[in-house]
Amino acid sequence: MTLITDVPATRHRPSVPRGRDRIAQSLLWVAAAGAGASAAASVSTILQASGATAMVETWRGYGYLVFAGLFVLLALRPHRYRGVWELVIANKVALAATALAFAARGGIAGTGSIIIWDGGLSVLLIAAYLTCRGWSRAPEAGAAR
């Protein structure tokens, strides 16, 4: 014998309020715009680079494009890319920490700008990650948002 019960379907509540996601997404769009602008600005640096630095400047320019793309993916779907969050944050924190170590040693060009830009970006990314709880699973399909 089969019993049929009329239990209304329950909606899963999102683990993060929509406003928090919007804040994180806005921060990520800022990061994406900055990385995109850096990629665009790197073109003239690449074109003016000597044979000794042309390849490393090109690599840096492509890196800006890759990170702009990663930030766009995270901005569009902040709960769909667990693991990517942690990788981009680890990269930016590592760059800032390395620049701090090089600055303490002295005599290495470019450390100040990396401390400012990648350090600031690290803070922005960590704030976005914590705000939207980037480690949490996305709400179920059909959930009220």
Structure description:
The protein has 145 residues and is mostly helical. It has one domain. It is built from 4 helices and no strands. α1 packs antiparallel against α2, α1 (18-48) runs antiparallel to α4 and α3 (84-105) runs antiparallel to α4. The longest helix has 31 residues, at 18-48. It is globular and about 50 Å long.
On the 0-100 scale, what is the average pLDDT?
Answer: 88
Shape: globular
Largest sheet: none
Q: Strand portion, in percent?
A: under 5%
The figure for the number of domains is: 1
Instruction: Write down the Rg.
Output: 21 Å
Low-confidence stretches: none
Which secondary-structure class do the elements indicate?
Answer: mainly alpha
- What is the terminal-to-terminal distance? 39 Å
Secondary-structure element sequence?
Answer: HHHH
Please report the number of helical segments. Answer: 4
Instruction: Count the beta strands.
Output: 0
* Helix residue percentage: 55-70%
Which features characterize this protein?
145 residues, single chain, mainly alpha
Provide a short characterization of the protein structure.
This protein has 145 residues and is mostly helical. The chain has one domain.
